[in-house]
Amino acid sequence: MNLGWWWRLFAGALAGFLFFHGFAATETVMNVVSIRIAPNYSFMYDAASASTLSYYDYIIVGGGTAGCPLAATLSQNATVLLLERGGSPYGNPNITKMASFGAALSDLSRSSPSQRFISEDGVINARARVLGGGSCINAGFYTRASDEYIKQAGWDGRLVNESYQWMEKSVAFEPSLGQWQSAVRDGLLEAGVMPSNGFTYDHIYGTKVGGTIFDQQGNRHTAADLLEYANPSGLTVLLHASVHKILFAIKGKRRPKAHGVVFRDATGAKHKAYLKQGSKNEIIISAGALGSPQLLMLSGVGPAQHLKSHDITVVLDQPLVGQGMSDNPMNAVFIPSPLPVEVSLIQVVGITHFGSYIEAASGENFAGGASSSPAVEYTNNLDETTFRGGFILEKVMGPISTGHLELRTRNPNDNPSVTFNYFKDPQDLQRCVQGIQTIEKIIESKAFFRFRYEFLSWPILLNMTANAPLNLLPKHYNPSMPLEVFCKDTVMTIWHYHGGCQVGKVVDLDYKVLGVDALRVIDGSTFNDSPGTNPQATVMMLGR
Predict the structure, then answer these.
(1) Domain ranges, residue 258
(2) Could you say which of 203, 259, 404, 496 is catalytic?
(3) Which of 63, 289, 429, 503 could form a disulfide with 84, with the two C-beta atoms 3.0–4.6 Å apart?
(4) Cα-flanking dihedrals φ and ψ of residue 503, to 5°?
(5) 452 lies in some domain
(6) pLDDT, tens digit, 9 for 90 and up, residues 93-129
(7) Is residue 451 part of a domain?
(8) What angle do CA 323, 247, 115 make, to 5 degrees?
């Protein structure tokens, strides 16, 4: 058997698959996918058509996973302006079709719904730039936070459940498990990730089938769909509206009070929106774990010396803005299959007691579709070969390791500098090792046997994965080395990064920014840990 050929094919396929998740469906799949009719939102406009001056009860910065349900809710009894820097997700098959998952992540154009960034750790990542936020570009898994998480957050359990249910009637579905996902599920049980919890949205130790935001026809349902519950007369949504700063009233005030925003449309024209008079009126930042701390800093709320170094007038010296940045490290093993496998995203999860979550995805023709990455060198030299297989991944819960975020420029459209310090804490690293060991048990299980080649032993699979261009880090791993080296060398993101505006540090328990008035942050930047196995359900719930 020519393992050199296998390695070249494997490396290119794995790189294209994991970097861009380029799940290319067959003709049959594409033909049966129905066209989903986009909602006709009468309140949605391009920012270029907006007046240069306007007034609202609430101004929300960021029409993402939290901002959309928040806007829909507030619009029932108030006037709301929702400002989104990206465009509409509707009519873009790269967003709306499961079969095209990954195309948006590999689109590096300025109009892409995904904006790539590379952390200082050398891991390639992405942030959303579209109405609906991360729910438009993610793998779609829908699962709730644990009861313990909800209790520790100090949330009202009844209100949390009502909010989850409010969303689930529109955007959450039970997936249909194919043979490969079923084999992973059964392999998890053989590996001891017990008990079997069937299908549930709840976070329970053991193996379960979770929800998905893709319906049975493969159509994605995003946070933007929740705007259908908005009061049309109470809401204005502006697309391609890039907010440059929060305006504060300081003169005659006991402390700074947020009272307006400055934003620019796609032509560069400047607009201002102010809060109407009213004691409850507020500005709410829902710009995500990168965008929210970045906007606070650009507006003069952050570490004084850092702001001064960028010639930003300090409104409030708040050294904890941008601190506590975390990204759950993800490591995966790719398994070529001798049998055809279904195109599937995350459907099954193993919730372990040692602090790692095991998930999986599968597809065909992974060798194509990479537009730009270390992967290109591999994929460009491959024949058009249909490559069957899937990957099993482990994600570290928490994590414990944290980093920080800083401004690079004063342009809000530029990525800030962010460091996550993957595996800085040894417990994160140990959880990864145990997760990888569990993946080995799944691959060696009776349930998974027919989906792997016997000649591709576990050490070979690890070595192939370790040599693929998964990140920008130097390579050290070989089969004689411990799994700790494998974890560090092959670390990737699963896009669950959070922090930067954490509760108790930057915002209080009601998400009000400490030290200023009329300003809140509502999104994943407030989290100390990532909720559940996948955070999108809880971010939407928080907005509601």
Answers:
(1) 44-169+221-321+497-543
(2) 496
(3) 63
(4) -60, 135
(5) yes
(6) 999 998 888 888 889 999 999 999 999 999 999 999 9
(7) yes
(8) 50
In eight-state DSSP terms, residue 165 is H
**Cβ neighbours, 10 Å, residue 178:** 15
Domain count, the chain: 2
Q: How many other C-beta atoms can be found within 10 angstroms of the C-beta atom of residue 355?
A: 18
Q: Would you say residue 30 lies in a domain? A: no
The mean pLDDT values, 10 residues at a time, for the chain of 544 residues are: 52 50 33 55 97 98 98 98 97 89 89 96 97 96 98 97 97 97 98 98 98 96 98 98 98 95 98 96 98 98 98 98 98 95 95 98 56 43 58 98 98 98 98 98 98 95 92 91 96 97 98 98 98 97 98
In the block, which residue shows the tokens 């010639």?
A: 311
Is residue 200 in a domain? yes
3-state SS, residue 57? coil
* CATH number of domain containing 347: 3.30.410.40
From the annotation, which residues make up the binding site for FAD?
130, 243, 495-496, 524, 535-536
Q: Fill in the DSSP letter of residue 223.
A: G
Provide Rg for the chain, Cα atoms. 23
- 395 residue type, one letter: K
Residue 496 designated active-site? yes
User: Can you give the pLDDT at residue 4?
Assistant: 55
8 A C-beta contact, residue 376 and residue 50:
no
Specify the pTM: 0.92
